[in-house]
Amino acid sequence: MNNYTNREEYLSKLLAYKDKDLIKVVSGLRRSGKSTLFELYRQTLLQMGVKEKQIVFLNFEEFELRKFLNDLDSLYAHIIGQLDLSKPCYVFLDEVQNVNEFERLVDGLFVKPNIDVYITGSNAFLLSGELATLLSGRYIEISILPFSFKEYLTARKIDISNRYLNYEALFFDYVNETSLPKGVELREGGFDKIYEYLEAIYATIVEKDITQRHQINDKRAFGNITKFVASNIGNPLSPGNIAKTLKQDGQNTHNTTVEKYLDYLVASFVFYKVNRFDLKGRKQLATQEKYYLVDVGLLNILAGKERTTDRGHILENVVYLELLRRGNKIWTGTSRNSEVDFVCKTKTGDIEYYQVAWKMAGESTIEREFGALEKINDNYPKFLLTSDSFTQNRSGIKHLNVFNWLLNTDTEQEQPNIII
């Protein structure tokens, strides 16, 4: 388990909600570490003196449990029968969306005294519809992401206090391989092993979580849409212009179909959708969203050898996920004459602006990147993140080295208290 000790932020969040009258919902991409987090938490409970008779741990992907998937009464009896309900008990239900009418099971356990309920799911639909209605105000969601750059280096046992590391080379490892926890363990076997692993995960997500669940017949169109979005991370997209592009390729896919497929991909945590925010009118816009990939390593599968997405967009993707980890709500900013990569509302409700570029190469880049932030005339903090080792602030904009920012080693910044 030593590879997972650096998921302590998630663990401490779970511990903070222990025995509180809330259902704990851990959501995120398949294989991003949800089951491992539960296992880690279970071990922590045992160390705290909780007895085996107080814990039930079920993973509904396991073959042995399939007899319960359509039989709630037996499943409920199976769980209750294992517990000593005279003491506080902890029930973990992993990939609970596989259970038919799981909402009723979760609710039934939740209302029983002395039961603390924890559930995971690889699909955002878990919290839409019935469950959200049934449990409104009674659950806390913790979204888990694959390894951050910092967690990735820790998992590789790299000493990040060493100021002389070649961060650029390590960053390329991070984005060219994978940020998924198990993928880091596979590094020793060479890149082929990582590639096979990513391929298998992606196939499972598409098969189990999307095409089977939503009965998608046109798998080719679905695959092409996914590849198109992956090759255009950080570019404004709309279902209409995606459908148009596919049409030039001889495929007739209606806008509404494109939109549905995008929703499924976002709900399965493959992509994250970022809405545009009108900086002048101060309102969210309904078109031309940007999409970012949960793990840029997946570009190997989705965009293949011709990973056309440039370094700037890949860096932007990594920065987006990091802003998400740090508890921000995120939009992409737009006004009549400029765009800014990210407008963030922090956990404390403050606004921050971020512009991301790979390098300050030449005068035109410097003008463009600083200019985008300078055009915003308010006094909220503005940050420019690049890979340059020499950074220079201008007009109150903080220019930071992006690797230091990702590792929280920038002295100019307060150390963010990372909450998921």
UniProtKB/TrEMBL annotation:
InterPro entries: AAA_14, DUF4143, P-loop_NTPase. Residues 207-357 form the DUF4143 domain. SUPFAM superfamilies: P-loop containing nucleoside triphosphate hydrolases (SSF52540). Residues 23-153 form the AAA domain. This is AAA+ ATPase domain-containing protein. It comes from Alkalitalea saponilacus.
